[in-house]
Amino acid sequence: MFHYIDIKPDWTTENELRFMCGLALQMGFEDILEIGCWNGRATVHFLQMGRVTVIDTFEGSNEQVHKEYFRKYGPEALYKEFEGNITNECQNYDYAWPTIMRSRSDTALDQLASEGKKFNLIFIDGSHEYEDVKSDIEKAFKLLKKPGVIFFDDLNWPDVARAVKESALDVKNYDGKLGFFMYF
Ligand SMILES: C[S@@+](CC[C@H](N)C(=O)[O-])C[C@H]1O[C@@H](n2cnc3c(N)ncnc32)[C@H](O)[C@@H]1O
Q1: If we measure between CA atoms, which residue out of 26, 22, 49 comes closest to residue 34?
Q2: Total domains, the chain
Q3: Are 68 and 111 in contact (CB under 8 A)?
Q4: Ligand 1 proximity of 104 Cβ (cutoff 6 Å)
Q5: 5 lies in a domain?
Q6: 122 in Cβ contact with 143 (< 8 Å)
Q7: Cα separation of 80 and 93, whole Å?
Q8: Tens of pLDDT along 133-145?
Q9: Closest C-alpha residue for ligand 1 atom 19
Q10: Of 144, 135, 121, 116, nearest to 52 (Cα)?
Q11: Any domain includes 2
């Protein structure tokens, strides 16, 4: 079962969520990792699929829209908003509470690897900076289960597209915003 929840902002579009969760449902992908979750818009959909781990500093990036958010609402607002959205869904639908890693992705991904964790759906949607994206991809690939899939959001950002292209993974959909790599 999948139900769509319209939490704003819809940086991850409804179509993207339907596509990722549709695949997860069809394939029985239950171990899900989201790198960069903001206020939990995608997370509340992934929770419907299975066990979810999220990584985020909850401090935003060096982007204008993020800076404005924290200037307006303060440094703890994003984590509180995320927690509120997750609480609503977990209480209403009895989903399992996600594992929340409040940290930079490089550190958190290393920790997951050292614990031997593996995921069959990884959504990379954190930093848009070239070096960070390269690191996220390299570390995420080591955490990918077979069968599995990595989704790359924001390929319309030149630095993100460059980092993904250089990863030498066979990623589909460079013409769009959301690309993916299948590992079967
Ligand atoms: C585009 S938003 C994520 C959107 C979210 N996936 C959604 O569906 O709405 C990017 C997130 O990445 C986080 N972020 C940026 N750089 C990061 C880093 N190096 N490590 C961890 N999180 C980071 C930001 O705090 C922000 O919440």
Answers
A1: 49
A2: 1
A3: no
A4: yes
A5: no
A6: yes
A7: 20
A8: 999 999 999 999 9
A9: 104
A10: 121
A11: no
CA nearest neighbour of 119 among 29, 22, 15, 44: 29
DSSP 55-113: EE-SS--S-HHHHHHHHHH-TTHHHHHHHHHHHHHHHHH-PPPPEEEES-HHHHHHHHH
Q: Which two tokens stand for residue 86?
A: 């997750």
Q: How confident is the model at residue 1 (pLDDT cuts 50, 70, 90)?
A: confident
Q: Is the CB of 136 under 6 A from ligand 1?
A: no
Q: Which two tokens stand for residue 61?
A: 């990036």
Please check whether residue 1 lies inside any domain of the structure: no
Q: Is the peptide bond before 147 cis (omega within 30 degrees of 0)?
A: yes
CA of 92 to the centre of ligand 1 (A): 26
- Give SS3 for 134: helix
Query: What span, in angstroms and rounded, lies between the C-alpha atoms of 42 and 36?
Result: 10
Residue (of 14, 2, 33, 12) closest to 112 by Cα position:
33
Assess if residue 69 is contained within a domain. Answer: yes
Find the mean pLDDT for residues 99-113.
98
Atom of ligand 1 nearest to the CA of 61: 15
Distance 47 CA to ligand 1 centre (A): 18
List the CATH number of the domain containing 86.
Answer: 3.40.50.150
Give, in degrees to the nearest 5, the angle at Cα 167 between 17 and 152.
10
